[in-house]
Amino acid sequence: MQLSIVNKYTLSGIAFGLAFPLAAWAMDIFLSGLTLSPATLVLIHQNNPIHYIVDLAPFVLGTVFYFLGTAYQLALNPNHYSALIDENRVAETTIGLKFITPIVVAMILIFFGIVSHYEEQSTKQSIPIKVGILHSLTGTMAISEKSVVDATQMAIDEINESGGLLGRRIEVVVIDGKSDWPSFASGAETLIKQEKVSVIFGCWTSASRKVVKPVVEAYDHLLFYPVQYEGLEQSPNIIYTGATPNQQISPAVNWSMENLGKRVYLAASDYVFPRAANTLIKKQITALGGEVVGEHYLPLGSQAVAELIDDIADSQADVILNTINGDSNLAFFQQLHSKGIKTPVMSFSIAEDELQQINIEVIVGHYSAWSYFQSLDTPENQRFVANFKKRYGANRTTNASMEAAYLGVHLWAKAVIHANTNDTSTVRQALKGESYLAPEGKVTISAFNNHLWKPLHIGQVQADGQFKIIWSQTETIRPLPYPSYRTRQSWQRYLDSLYQAWGKNWAAPISDHQDKEVAL
């Protein structure tokens, strides 16, 4: 039996109505350059809420056409009411209703299902992904850490400007570590418990990392640590984007002894990184037939360098290996210059940003070893430097720890995309083996120890405040956080002995800054 005019009109209305949302979807997808997917449909509805109204077109036009069909049928048959009792007409109408009703009901259910899904997705996407930045904005370490915050923020801004992650914006919560270890520990707990961040980007000194490590492990969370360090650590909850000793210190010591001399003086701050680093350095110097002619430790942040400078002058050293951190370096290089000491210095914590704070005349000609220098000539680095200067000023510089912080954000973002979630534990698993073409070159996270394969460069300070790269190992170096000549248990006992000797702290007390060696 054929459908009545009414039912034909109704089906025509539904068909025309379906064309409206399909055409609107296609137009938005075409104009945006996106590909068709459920996620795309959610996104175009979020960006253009008029789609919710357009989606109603099948039902609106179907209803309108139904009434038009009814009116047309009545016009053709004024005796419609009497016709309805005709057996054939009743049968036709009944069949038509049986045919139309399931279609209309199904479309209504589909519509409300789509709307419910869109609303759920829209609600979820309206909630930003929170991340934490935990660095010293005040105190002795602010000279180094403020710029790392800027580089971290730039990477986050780049991601937000490209549409965010999983359709959501990234919201940043910044906490000042105040160059004070308890402030770092409490800051990490605040970010995790109160702010509910998905990841923390932070810490500079090993002392700060050491107090944050148990916090992120206790909450099974995630920290990206951007600074070269002493090694002797591995955590499933930390991604180490700075260099290990075999990627920075050991090659630089080899180069120094081959090119500058074998009589070595060790100048250092008195906390866990320099102490542990110098333990490794002394072992290497002995193996290379060199001699440690002096060793002196300053309290972190101390400007009292006179005794250190006098000791260097008396030592007749060929080269100074410098693991002083923070603004103590200002006084150190100024006094070296004032005393007329020409001994070359190889530094492991002096980069472009520190050069801006030091009178350049007193440090020209000295050396640093890093996986990155601003003067690297790669397309990725040129874009990185240009973007940074555009955001923060033409006089600003970039350095290795800033670049390591920057690439850490992008590594995390790639893992979030691959995992299709910002859930911390899931992202941690997705990070294993993740790679990124960074300003320093392609870096890869070791699936075995959460450290990066990285290159190394040695640079000499120039009068313009930049480093001239004079030696490079561009093939990435495998990260080995634990030197193999001792067991991990032995290294842990050594670190524990430092911690106990400093009154259960990761830096020597201000009153205890003599150049003491903890028994190995």
What percentage of the residues does DSSP assign to strands (E)? 15-25%
Instruction: Tell me roughly what share of residues is in helical segments.
Output: 40-55%
How many angstroms separate the termini? 99 Å
Q: What is the CA-atom radius of gyration, in angstroms?
A: 33 Å
Specify the biggest β-sheet: 9 strands, mixed
| Average pLDDT rating | 85
Helix tally equals 18
Briefly note the structural class of the backbone. Answer: alpha/beta
- Which outline best applies? globular
Question: What does this 3D model show about the protein?
Answer:
This protein has a domain at 5-125. The chain is built from 18 helices and 14 strands. It has helices spanning 5-32, 38-47, 50-54, 57-76, 80-84, 87-125, 142-161, 181-194, 206-218, 249-259, 272-287, 306-315, 328-338, 352-355, 379-392, 400-419, 424-431, 488-501, and strands at 129-135, 170-176, 200-202, 223-225, 238-240, 263-269, 291-298, 319-323, 345-347, 367-370, 435-438, 441-445, 452-461, 467-477. Strands 6, 7, 8, 9, 10, 11, 12, 13 and 14 form a nine-stranded mixed sheet that branches. Helix 13 (328-338) links the parallel strand 8 (319-323) and strand 9. Helix 2 crosses helix 6 (87-125), helix 8 (181-194) packs parallel to helix 9 (206-218) and helix 10 (249-259) crosses helix 11 (272-287). It is globular.
